[in-house]
Each structure stands twice: as structure tokens, then as C-alpha cells.
Design goal:
two-stranded antiparallel sheet, 3 domains, 2% strand, mainly alpha, 65% helix
Length: 483
């Protein structure tokens, strides 16, 4: 492929593709290099991530970060190794040529055609220095080329290699992934990151951007520090994507966590809203022909809202939205009759949710975020992972929060595994999933960032954080943060 016919931004995107493909060359070297994070192989992964973020966003901070990685690697870490390794040399030749800014970029260091020719030569060498790929492997399909278009469409939603790969390339890729996974402390993130590009399902680009911008001081502190910061970023990102208008706090005396709802803006209005919904529910239950009874999910949700969350606008709004969705689905599918009482209850919860959002901006903003959020089916093993985590979550929580875990986790599992009359795939309950993973993320952040908690005898072993880490990865999968 001739880079001379590409724009500056397209050239960066193509260079990123060749960098991703070239990482497979490090399979045996990472497998045998016990200290690989201290060598240039690890720097090549970091450099590629930073370069990709710059190619995706044109983010000048990411550009500076990639330059810094290049400079520290070439000048400090392993210049001899780079000189002896043609693939590494190709990687860092890109950095040395300032190839982030080809000829037509306004702030370019490559303002001349001669320098741009050098860039073309470097990237061409990067492409051809692949010891496992055949010429057929190296082809770029039209679909892959389209996914490299700059701007919002540059998502790389196509696998970076052709579907039919040579056996030697398949074997090398498996060796690379295996070499990363046997180093769970610092290899797990990079394995997930690379696997995403192999599958055409890259990790959320904003999450990649945040990792790319981790400060040099943290990278230089070693793999443990980097892994810790990545887990903090993951938890923070999941918390943002599962917003709850509440705080999670820590009780120093009991060494347990609890939640604090936001202050009720207009208590009288909230009380009137709850009363209106309760009256509509009583009317619907009074006539058995309406199809609702005390064991109906919608009835149980509204009872729980009234008895437990009477002063929590966020949870009331989520409960109302959940009930409205359930009633609407059942009425449309003829599971419930469109009776006057059922329609009145449906309208009451809808109006109640709107009233809460109108008086509580935080709740309104959270609903907007959640309405745009994709929720996936529970992946394989999720049920067992959630069930195994429940005793630990209860043990670190005050009674009210422990009660929520006891309610939300079984409900999430049952909603996501039970059959639907329509035959559609079962999905996790949005409210339960949001509560669970928002709180898991906030607890993880508190432990990681609060020395007094992290050093407490109940938490210093790291077992709680390890379980929370697994749950955060599960939450990221369910909420499509890991494609």
C-alpha cells in the first residue's frame, strides 16, 4: 500500500495498523524475557497504545506521551536491544522521525517531502519486518481500510488480520497472548487490549486514552505501579458509566462500606409522588383481572421502593423506570390487559420518574447516560462469579448495603438467565446491574486511594481488591466498555 496517496491522518492510522500487526513478532522474546517490562518490548506496547490514541483522536497529549516513551526508551532503557532488533528499530524509527505529524500537518516536524519519504520508508519497513506473516496475511481488506478512516469512524471494528491466516501467524499470535496471560500482574490488560484488536472489538477508546496518558513517573515506578493505576482507571471509568446519585463511604469503626443518597430537593413533592404511585398500585391489585399480584416483579419493586428507598430519589427513579418498562412490555405482549387500572399505574410511574428528574438534575443526567449505555448478556461464568462474590460483598458492607447485594445479585442473575416469552435473549436488569457495578467500582476506588482502608487488616491481603477487580472486568463487559 502506497502511503504517498494518503492524507496525514490516514497515514497515522495505517502506521498504527502496522504497529499492531508487528507486535506479534515479540511472541518468543516476551515468553523468555522474564524482565520484559523493563525492556523495550513493553515500551513498544505502550508506544503503540499512545500512537493509536493520537491516530484516533489527534490528541496532542497522547502525541507528547508517545514521544516521551520513545525518548526514554532510546536514551535510557535499552538502546543496545533496540539496535539489535529490526522490529523494535522499526517501531522506534517511527518515533524518531516524529511520524505522528506527516507532511501536511500544521505543527509538523516533517514539513518537507524528503522527510515524508523517510516516514514512508520507515512504515514500509515496519510492515515488511514481520517474521510470521505471509504476503496474503499482510493484505488489508476494504472493510479494514474503511475502519481506519480518521475521526469518529476510526474504531478498528474489523480484525487486524485476515480471517484465513497462515498457521505460523496463528501460532505466533497464540504464543504472544499466552506469554502475556502468564504474567497476570501486568500482562492481563495488554492481553485484553491486543485481543480486542485481533477480534475487531477494541477496548473502549476513551479507556485507552486514559491509560495512554498515565504519567511517566508511574510507568517508571515499575509494572506493579502501572497495574495499580490501570485498575484505578478501570474502576473510575466504570463508575462514570454506571452513575448513581449517591456516595459510597467507609465506616472506620465497623470497617464496612455504606451508601449515602443525595439530599431530597423537594420532600413534599417526592412524598406526593410516592403516594400517587402507591394508590395506583393498590387500585391495580384490587381487581385480579388486571393480572398483577403480590409476587409480580413490578409489585415487589414498588413495595421495595416505598419501604426502603423513600428518601432516595435515585433509587425511586430507577424503580419507577424499571416498573414502567415491565408494564409496557407485558401490556404490548398481551401478558397483562390494557385495563384502566394498569394504564393508570403505568402513567403514574412514568410521571413520577419525570418529576424526580425535574427536581434532581443529578438523577436526570444519570438517566441520560444510562439511556445511551449498551447492556449485554451475561458472559459465560458470570453467574458463578457473582454468586461467589456475594458473601464477600456482604461481609464488607453495612446491613442496608448488604441487603441490597442480597436483592440485586440474585435478581440480576435471574433476569439475565430466565426465558423471555418473546424468545429474545435475556439481558441483565439495567437497574440491578447499574447499582451493583457502580458500587463495586466506588468501593474499589476508595480502597485503592485511601491508605487507612487499604492497610486495614480486612483489606491488606488484597483478596477483596482481587474480587472487586474481577467484578469490574465483568461490569466492563456487560456495559460494553470492553468490546
Amino acid at each position: 500500500m502506497d502511503f504517498r496517496n494518503q492524507s496525514a491522518t490516514s497515514s497515522r492510522a495505517l502506521a498504527f495498523l502496522w504497529q499492531l500487526r508487528s507486535l506479534v513478532n515479540f511472541d518468543k522474546k516476551i515468553e523468555t524475557a522474564q524482565g520484559w517490562p523493563d525492556l523495550s518490548y513493553f515500551a513498544a506496547f505502550r508506544f503503540t497504545l499512545q500512537f493509536g490514541v493520537f491516530a484516533r483522536y489527534g490528541d496532542l497529549d497522547a502525541e507528547d506521551a508517545a514521544r516521551s516513551t520513545f525518548q526514554s526508551t532510546i536514551t535510557k532503557q535499552a538502546i543496545d536491544l533496540v539496535d539489535d532488533d529490526p522490529v523494535l528499530l522499526s517501531f522506534f524509527d517511527v518515533g524518531g522521525l516524529a511520524a505522528f505529524n506527516p507532511a501536511d500537518h500544521t505543527s509538523s516536524e516533517l514539513r518537507t517531502r524528503q522527510n515524508f519519504e523517510s516516514f514512508v520508508n520507515v512504515v514500509t519497513r515496519l510492515r515488511t519486518n514481520n517474521q510470521y506473516a505471509t504476503e496474503t496475511d499482510l493484505e488489508v481488506s476494504p472493510a479494514l481500510l474503511n475502519s481506519l478512516e480518521p475521526g469518529p469512524t476510526f474504531m478498528l471494528l474489523e480484525p487486524i488480520w485476515p480471517e484465513k491466516k497462515s498457521k505460523q501467524l496463528r501460532d505466533a499470535t497464540e504464543r504472544l497472548l499466552s506469554a502475556l496471560i502468564i504474567r497476570p500482574l501486568y500482562g492481563q490488560f495488554w492481553r485484553e487490549w491486543y485481543q480486542g484488536f485481533l477480534d475487531g472489538k477494541p477496548m473502549d477508546w476513551e479507556l485507552q486514552r486514559r491509560v495512554a496518558l498515565i504519567e511517566d513517573a508511574i510507568w517508571e515506578s515499575g509494572p506493579e505501579a502501572v497495574a495499580e493505576e490501570i485498575e484505578r482507571i478501570r474502576a473510575e471509568f466504570l463508575s462514570e458509566k454506571t452513575p448513581q446519585a449517591e456516595r459510597v463511604e467507609f465506616n472506620q469503626e465497623s470497617a464496612k462500606f455504606f451508601t449515602v443518597p443525595i439530599e431530597v430537593a423537594k420532600p413534599d413533592l417526592l412524598g406526593a409522588t410516592l403516594t400517587q404511585v402507591e394508590d395506583a398500585l393498590d387500585d391495580a391489585l384490587a381487581n385480579p383481572s388486571n393480572g398483577l399480584h403480590d409476587q409480580s416483579r413490578e409489585v415487589r419493586v414498588l413495595r421495595r421502593v416505598a419501604t426502603k428507598y423513600g428518601n432516595d430519589p435515585q433509587q425511586i427513579e430507577m424503580g419507577f423506570v424499571s416498573v414502567h418498562a415491565g408494564l409496557t412490555r407485558q401490556i404490548l405482549s398481551d401478558e397483562l390487559p390494557p385495563s384502566e387500572e394498569n394504564l393508570a399505574l403505568q402513567a403514574a410511574v412514568e410521571e413520577g420518574a419525570r418529576a424526580i428528574r425535574a427536581t434532581h438534575p443529578e438523577v436526570a443526567e444519570n438517566r441520560k447516560i444510562l439511556s445511551e449505555q449498551v447492556i449485554r448478556e451475561l458472559p459465560e461464568g458470570a453467574k458463578e462469579k457473582l454468586e461467589a462474590a456475594l458473601p464477600m460483598l456482604r461481609a464488607i458492607s453495612e446491613p442496608a448495603l448488604a441487603d441490597d447485594w442480597d436483592h440485586d445479585i440474585p435478581t440480576l442473575i435471574n433476569d439475565a438467565t430466565g426465558p423471555l416469552p418473546s424468545g429474545a435473549p435475556a439481558l441483565p436488569g439495567a437497574d440491578e446491574a447499574t447499582r451493583i457495578f457502580s458500587r463495586v467500582a466506588k468501593i474499589s476506588i476508595l480502597i485503592r486511594t485511601t491508605k487507612a482502608i487499604k492497610s486495614h487488616p480486612l483489606y491488606e491481603s488484597g483478596e477483596v481488591l482481587l474480587t472487586l477487580k474481577d467484578l469490574i472486568l465483568l461490569g466492563a463487559t456487560i456495559f460494553a466498555l470492553l468490546m
